[in-house]
Amino acid sequence: MAKRRIDTMEENRAKLIAAARKAFAEKGYSAASMDELTAEVGLTRGALYHNFGDKRGLLAAVVDQIDSEMASQAQEIGAREGDDWKGLLAEGAAYIEMALVPEVQRIVLLDGPAVLGDPSRWPSQSSCFLETKRTVERLIAKEVFKPLDAEAAARLLSGAALNAALWVAASDDPKHVLPKAIETFHALAAGLLMKPA
């Protein structure tokens, strides 16, 4: 009996996140109606409050889901390079490029920071940072990177990619800004190399 209740709670949570993701992408956080959203999935506002506390909590869950997907996709792209240095560049560029995806742009890069605050403090960003730190540690150990503090280097690289994505998303012409953001991210990362690229 208890297992069925847990399964139902997880199903309700998943339904609410999916409906909110759609509503936030189409209408934006402010214009999305929680009554419409809960009615669409056959649940009450009570289910929303029980699972997320409030609309802001629901946005946090949606942002976490999308940002985690972004990080995972960027890491897969980086892993295809077969080389930590090239992979780091590809991963950063892929993350920045996702700022062109309308759902990512609106929910994660515009509404997310406006409602949830500093993205570098989001759980999904912490996970992304830890992956970057592991890569930086390997590059330092292989003497590809200068013997700097790995945490500092990883935080600055992660911050550069995140801020570049935020800049692209908020710009009047994201497609024009994107190549500049990626080129500069690559140049900043190259500054960590033991020997010039």
UniProtKB/TrEMBL annotation:
The keyword DNA-binding applies. Residues 33-52 bind DNA. InterPro entries: Homeodomain-like_sf, HTH-type_TetR-like_transc_reg, HTH_TetR, Rv0078-like_C. Transmembrane segments: none annotated. The keyword DNA-binding applies. Keywords: DNA-binding. This is AcrR family transcriptional regulator.
